[in-house]
Amino acid sequence: MFVAELGAGIWADSKALMADSADNLGDSLVYAISLFVVARSVRWRAGAAFMKGLIQLTFGLGLILTIIASLLGEPQPIGLVMMAVAGVALIGNLICFGLLMKHRGEDVNMRSVWLCSRNDVISNTGVIISGVLVIWLDSYWPDLIVASIVAVVFLHTAYEVLRSAGQSWRGEPQAHVNISCSVLVINAT
What we know:
With 189 residues, this protein is mainly α. It is 78% helix and 4% strand. Strand 1 (177-179) and strand 2 form a beta hairpin. Keywords: Ion transport, Membrane, Transmembrane, Transmembrane helix, Transport, Zinc, Zinc transport.
């Protein structure tokens, strides 16, 4: 979905679609790192969390640079493409969300995955609404606003993850640090 949304975002000149694609790539990288360190020590998990924070920071800063570059020109996002691609992504994310619904309370990892799916559904819905507003208002501002919101979420997530990873690395006590897509889980027991 990352590749499809990124390609469509570039073609449709939509920063919101590009932001949503970055979110999908971020989720994939975060899940891969999480699986790699799941049975390792707290220090390994803290190092992985630090890497996840850097990924989120990179995506957030990249989105901000993309938005600034757009403001220097006059972007012409294609609302219909935005809605169609985000609609396909929404269907996939709703299926995942539904499958995970009954497992969301099993443990912190399942809750984290469920929260990521929930956030993806919200993000897809935001891109669809942005596409409608781009067409209705004949303006690129809704696209940039949604992309900006996603960038802020990435930067907030990066801050929380990096702060928590630092605490865990130093061995500071913490019950749970909950950071799924905007929150990661480190159990310091």
